[in-house]
Design goal:
Helix content is 50%, strand content 10%. The protein is built from 15 helices and ten strands.
Length: 375
């Protein structure tokens, strides 16, 4: 319904004796937050809130919607986007930072002062072309369009547009590059070129499909069976703290296969270096802090620079995770399982990146289908 309060600094227990007046705060029928000052007693404040509530309940739905649409249609995109972003409460720190960057550098300079009721397919097309003209990279164009689309769809659901603002708009198309995947022999030489920390992370990424941040949070307690590891958290690269998994809510997890070789690597590391609350990897200079992402990057660059291993052109740290997908798909493990184990938001991502690794072909399918048709 709303709230009442005082801004004088006195504790709530003394409000009844305090001479300062009350304020109330509530949401109007149009969806705008309103504050009203000047209430002498708590009963006066509550009485006003009750009147506002009754008025909102009595107002026809059409009137409430009309007031809301009137407010937001005239709002500028920058202000609307700020409200939309504040409502995305399920985002982690890194995910919050991403839309902020897109808004600040690409969307607000071009669209920030535009009123919401002026958006249509032509405006959206113009936004895409403007990014192309100034040389914005394809991946950034795709991400910026996706964020603009989410904001405009939110506005469309509120009833701000008579016609859909994205009808006929052709979005930028992002085609992931084919992953560079080391051979088993190359992988072995790469992992042996690093120290125990590097070998542990390499095994977790190539054997369990973990992201490097997830591998950095490896914990003995997460071995839930001899052949199953439960991924429950990651070391967030932005904050340097333990955080929820990408594309997951707090408390959600992924169970992934735990090959015997990887389990042995985990146990050997724990026996040699010990653990802290079950965590194997900690900050080299401060064991009270999580393992820093730059340590892995520095060691990877050192291995590449010293040419201690045969590293295929285009290989990156993520190639260890690509090896996991390759190992699964070339051995006929269903892509639905692989997508789930890797934590992809949807199977389309897995399919676009790794389709070429799947052994099935049209010719093979035709032979299999023909066998039963002629039986």
């Amino acid at each position: 319904m709303g709230s009442f309060f005082k801004e004088c600094g006195h504790p709530r227990s003394r409000w009844s004796k305090c001479p300062h007046s009350y304020k109330i705060r509530y949401w109007s029928a149009s969806g705008k937050q309103v504050e009203e000052p000047g209430f002498t007693t708590q009963d006066d404040a509550i009485g006003r809130l009750t009147d506002v509530y009754k008025a909102k309940k009595a107002a026809p739905r059409s009137q409430v919607k009309a007031e809301r649409v009137s407010l937001y249609r005239a709002m500028r995109f920058g202000e609307y986007a700020a409200e939309w972003k504040a409502g995305q409460r399920d985002l982690g720190p890194a995910s919050e930072r991403h839309p902020e960057s897109l808004l600040e550098h690409h969307m607000l300079p071009l669209l920030g002062s535009r009123r919401m009721n002026t958006f249509d397919p032509g405006v959206v097309d113009g936004f895409i072309r403007s990014m192309e003209r100034v040389g914005v990279g394809l991946t950034t164009r795709v991400n910026a369009f996706d964020k603009l689309k989410a904001i405009l769809l939110d506005a469309h659901r509120l009833g701000l547009f008579d016609d859909h603002p994205l009808t006929g708009v052709k979005p930028p198309q992002y085609a992931p590059k084919r992953a560079v995947i080391p051979s088993p022999q190359q992988l072995r030489r790469i992992r042996e070129a690093g120290d125990d920390r590097f070998r542990l992370i390499t095994d977790l990424m190539s054997g369990c499909g973990m992201r490097n941040g997830e591998a950095a949070a490896v914990n003995l307690r997460n071995i839930v069976a001899d052949d199953v590891y439960r991924i429950t958290e990651q070391v967030n690269q932005t904050t340097g703290t333990y955080a929820r998994l990408k594309h997951r809510k707090n408390g959600e997890y992924r169970d992934v296969p735990l090959p015997t070789r990887v389990k042995q690597t985990i146990e050997r590391y724990a026996d040699t270096h010990g653990t802290t609350d079950g965590y194997l990897l900690r900050h080299p200079q401060d064991t009270t802090r999580p393992f820093p992402h730059y340590y892995l990057n520095n060691q990877w660059q050192h291995i590449k620079r010293t040419r201690e291993a045969d590293i295929p052109e285009g290989t990156v740290l993520y190639s260890f995770r690509h090896f996991f997908a390759s190992n699964c798909l070339t051995h006929n493990i269903p892509i639905t399982d692989v997508a789930d184990w890797m934590g992809h938001k949807n199977i389309d991502v897995t399919f676009k990146i790794y389709r070429h690794l799947m052994p099935g072909t049209i010719s093979t399918a035709a032979t299999i289908l023909n066998h039963h048709l002629t039986a």
